[in-house]
Amino acid sequence: MKPELEKALRVNAPFTTSVLEGFIRDEVQKVGFQRVVFGLSGGIDSALSAYLATGALGKDAVHAVMMPYRTSSQASLDDAMEVVDDLGIGYTVVDISGPVDAYFDAMDERLEKKASNLRRGNRMARERMSTLYDLSAERNALVVGTSNKTELLLGYGTQFGDMASALNPIGDLYKSQVRQLSAHVGVPRSILDKAPSADLWEDQTDEKELGFSYDDADEILYQWVDVRLSPDEIVERGYDRRLVEHIVTRVQRNQYKRRPPIIAKLSSRTIGIDFRYLRDWGV
């Protein structure tokens, strides 16, 4: 990463941690809840969310759910357990292989073709979120999101799958900032050092699937989204035009994923357009 961009993306870790812990505490408690649940994959994003949620609410109010598929890495589960042990939080392990395989056994036969990795990955992400929301109801707890700003902008996630949550403390942190904050709060070294992966199939890594590194993405996204440079101005700073245009196009094409479902306006007051109140209205 270029030194000037590395400096611009540097976070004040103690201050940012305090702000995000306050955000979690406030947004959970003001709508009448005291506890949270979240998916803990063994990756850096969910690990950071675990440390922030525990700092905000205390270990007894935080529950991690590990949801491996049969091809998931054992190392991911081991890393998740290291976080659970370090924080002393409760956890549940739910193997999603059965329901996912049962669905595709039937659907592949009906469609007379084998599902792509994309379809299988989306189904796994939604099976995990379905499980989380069931446990959310069982435990009277809100679901904490674990998607960072880089992933959300790139649309590198499944709508109503891993992108779904009741609140997301790390959604305004680029991946490089997630790494900084994770080191500050004490995320285990084994997680800090490994290649990011959604672990949806064997040998999957985020950067291999995206076709570029998170550092490259963060540099371009920061200058386009936060500094508001045009793609041409970013290219003039020495970046590859094809990569800049690819990333900008990807962000634009995935805008629909970041918006709530659009409602056709028929009345004088339409939900989300004219009928808009604060999240804790009436609580």
From TrEMBL:
Pfam families: NAD_synthase. Its EC number is 6.3.1.5. It catalyses: deamido-NAD(+) + NH4(+) + ATP = AMP + diphosphate + NAD(+) + H(+). Residues 19-261 form the NAD/GMP synthase domain. Deamido-NAD(+) binds at residue 126. Gene3D superfamilies: HUPs. It is an enzyme of class 6 (ligase). GO terms for molecular function: NAD+ synthase activity. Keywords: ATP-binding, Ligase, Magnesium, Metal-binding, NAD, Nucleotide-binding. Mg(2+) binds at residues 45, 151. Pathway: Cofactor biosynthesis; NAD(+) biosynthesis; NAD(+) from deamido-NAD(+) (ammonia route): step 1/1. ATP binds at residues 39-46, 146, 175, 197. InterPro entries: NAD/GMP_synthase, NAD_synthase, NH(3)-dep_NAD(+)_synth, Rossmann-like_a/b/a_fold. Homodimer. Belongs to the NAD synthetase family. NCBIfam families: nadE, PRK13980.1. Catalyzes the ATP-dependent amidation of deamido-NAD to form NAD. Uses ammonia as a nitrogen source. This is NH(3)-dependent NAD(+) synthetase. It comes from Alicyclobacillus dauci. The lineage of its organism: Bacteria, Bacillati, Bacillota, Bacilli, Bacillales.
